[in-house]
Amino acid sequence: MSSNQTVAPATILIVDDTPENITTLGDLLQPYYTLRVAINGARALASANSDQRPDLILLDVMMPEMDGYTVISRLRENPHTAEIPVIFVTALDATDDETHGLELGAADYITKPLRPAIVLARVRSQLELKLARDRMRDQNLWLEAEVARRMKQNQLIQDASMRALASLAETRDNETGNHILRTQGYVEVLCRELARMHHPEVLDTHCIELITKAAPLHDIGKVGIPDQILLKPGKLTEEEWAIMRTHSALGAEAIRRAIQDEADQSVFDFLHVAMKIAHYHHEKWDGSGYPEGLAGENIPLPARLMALADVFDALINRRCYKKAMPLEQAVTVIQDGKGKHFDPMIVDAFSNCLEQFISIALRYADTEFESAY
């Protein structure tokens, strides 16, 4: 704050039903603070709950209809007034009375007859404490906003870097980055429908976010496959197919090596999911897939989701070794694979969400799919 700026004086609400007490406190505090007055509890609550909240309340205990103890209890129950510091001003002298007031949330206790030096010191002390709390609260809010901003920025950078890496593998495979966007969209749709159908306790919002975020890395291992195999227009030989099949293990191993030396593995949750997807998305429900021949629920759920998404997209789009398949035929292939290639529940989710699949396919379409559809 620049030196020519002035700080408005603190506002103090005096609550007392005796005019003489109000006058005494007013004469004492008026030179230093902005004062407001309430002559009973109801008016005190209304004034405290106004848009111009006081910085401090001097509250008499012994008042008719609503005593100070009731007033402070009401203040503390209201989130709008709960943090306003209250100093009780009372003729009561008993320790039990003071203890009760402090238990209800009073910041301090001043007994009558009032001693000016004591009143000014107690008021100043409570206002300084409130100012310090307000500054700390504002600083914490700023820090929270700054942390959220930086986390969002880091998330965007992380997502962009991940997609760039995934696109590298797709580009080598003579595919466009749209394959990544399509399969990621399919996986998210399947996750949400499967959660609705069967697994809301397993596929919660965080889990769906992790799986969806990890999906683009499913074929990252293709960067390790030679071009003469990866881009071969015809059918692969048995030897070539054996090499092609290694891309799943290569992808998982590449991700594992990237994070193995980090002490805090929790920050790489989505990469652990990505390892499962990369490694197992060519496994089949009946155990006839690769690389390990896993079957049924032994195949990690993220990989089962990706298996269907990846096959569906491969069917309806051109590859270097085949033409795009008409949509209706591709849907039949997926549904015929229920309980064989694919998890039956995931096929059911696919059938329920076919319109969403078509929408995603069209949104990120290659020309071949548009003509096929």
TrEMBL record:
<dbReference type="GO" id="GO:0008081">
    <property type="term" value="F:phosphoric diester hydrolase activity"/>
</dbReference>
<dbReference type="GO" id="GO:0000160">
    <property type="term" value="P:phosphorelay signal transduction system"/>
</dbReference>
<dbReference type="InterPro" id="IPR011006">
    <property type="entry name" value="CheY-like_superfamily"/>
</dbReference>
<dbReference type="InterPro" id="IPR001789">
    <property type="entry name" value="Sig_transdc_resp-reg_receiver"/>
</dbReference>
<feature type="modified residue" description="4-aspartylphosphate">
    <location>
        <position position="60"/>
    </location>
</feature>
<keyword id="KW-0597">Phosphoprotein</keyword>
<feature type="domain" description="HD-GYP">
    <location>
        <begin position="154"/>
        <end position="366"/>
    </location>
</feature>
<dbReference type="Pfam" id="PF00072">
    <property type="entry name" value="Response_reg"/>
</dbReference>
<dbReference type="InterPro" id="IPR003607">
    <property type="entry name" value="HD/PDEase_dom"/>
</dbReference>
<dbReference type="InterPro" id="IPR052020">
    <property type="entry name" value="Cyclic_di-GMP/3'3'-cGAMP_PDE"/>
</dbReference>
<feature type="domain" description="Response regulatory">
    <location>
        <begin position="11"/>
        <end position="127"/>
    </location>
</feature>
<protein>
    <submittedName>
        <fullName>Transcriptional regulator</fullName>
    </submittedName>
</protein>
<dbReference type="InterPro" id="IPR037522">
    <property type="entry name" value="HD_GYP_dom"/>
</dbReference>
<dbReference type="Pfam" id="PF13487">
    <property type="entry name" value="HD_5"/>
</dbReference>
